[in-house]
Structure formats: C-alpha cells, structure tokens
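Exercise: predict the fold of this chain.
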Amino acid sequence: MLTIENITKLYKRDVGEWRIGKIETLSSTYLFHLYKFNRRIGIQINLERNPIGVQYELWRWNAYGNQSPHPNSVPMRRMLDRSKLLTPDSLVNEIKELMYR
C-alpha cells in the first residue's frame, strides 16, 4: 500500500491553471480536489494506493456536460512507478501531465 509522507505539502500547489484545494486520504485512494483560481469549478484526481503490479494508477474522469461523471465520461489514466511519487514536485508534474494531455 502506498503511503505518501507529508501529503499536506501538496495543498495549495498550482497545477497549471488549477490549484490543489483539498486532499483526502482514504483507505485505498488519495483524492486531490483541484479548483480554478477564484472560481468554484473543480475536478477530482485519484491516486490509487494499491499497486497494479509495481505501478500506481493516477486517474480522473474526462467529464462531458455539467455532470461528473457524466454517463458518457471516460477515465483518463496514467500508470506511475514509485520513482514518480518520491517528491511533491514530481507528483504535481504527473498530475499536470494527466490534466493537460
């Protein structure tokens, strides 16, 4: 199981035009809530804590319309090895790659 020490260091970090506004630690997932600056528009990024083989899944819904997840939404995924999760900067970079691909 993945444990990120000092996960709160990611709070209020900028990810492009988004900012990490809330972080939740669940038993099997880390949830990162990102918001646009000065707006209530938000998106959730999920980091699975249980590996698939030796990699961890970072994912979000690619939402359509005003509903998330919309019935036509598809998940956008990145598989990461532990080396991509060693520093807050490397994790923020991976979140940014997921957001802007």
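Check your answer against the key: The radius of gyration is 13 Å.
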